[in-house]
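Quick one, T. Sequence first:
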Amino acid sequence: MSTVEPDDTSTPEPSTRRPAGAVLVLGAIGLLLLGAVAGVLLRMPLEKNSEPEPSAVDVGFSQDMSAHHAQAVDMAGVALIASTDNDVRRLAYDILTTQQNQIGRMQAWLQLWGESNQNVEGYMGWMTDEHGNTGHHGGNTAEPTMSGPMQQMPGMASQEEMTALRQSTGPALDTMFLQLMLRHHQGGVPMLDYAAEHADTTAVRTLASTMSKTQESESQLMTSMLATRGATPLPLS
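Structure tokens:
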């Protein structure tokens, strides 16, 4: 009995194209769910221990840093999908997954405390001088304090900058992403260091300290990546 030989010519070659849009969308949804799950799981320690009641610093930091992180996640998503540079895409993936998870934690704490997701009166009003102007941890810059809520947090990209990022391609996109994200990280440092020192709950102090160390490492990496590309950091806005 004769057999039919398979037609090898019909076997498709492995694709080198970037993941399809649908796959990326599903991945983003998965990250959102992971962040939410992580936040729910992290409620348990706060419910069971003898932590003090959250202060204005704990609540304000969780609200404002969630909003600050949300823009970083947005920028990282643009770079992850549109960039063709593997180093840039790897950094964007790390930032997106890490900060989305942290948003989940902070939002779960706010829900547990019976607080709103954000303060509609403005940002950073919780950074008052009631704790004393002690400066950063060994740094040369005096610790900033606020006289009242601000309408915008330091380091945030404008709507025009976000639009330009989404419309950019190739090396121009990579450079713009690195510049905007580096400035974004730098703008969040005062909030991170203030919360790491002045928050009442151990969970918030620990998270803020972890964020500060991670973003310092990422900032050094982005500064190096910009130098390799012949570009310079943006001034902090």
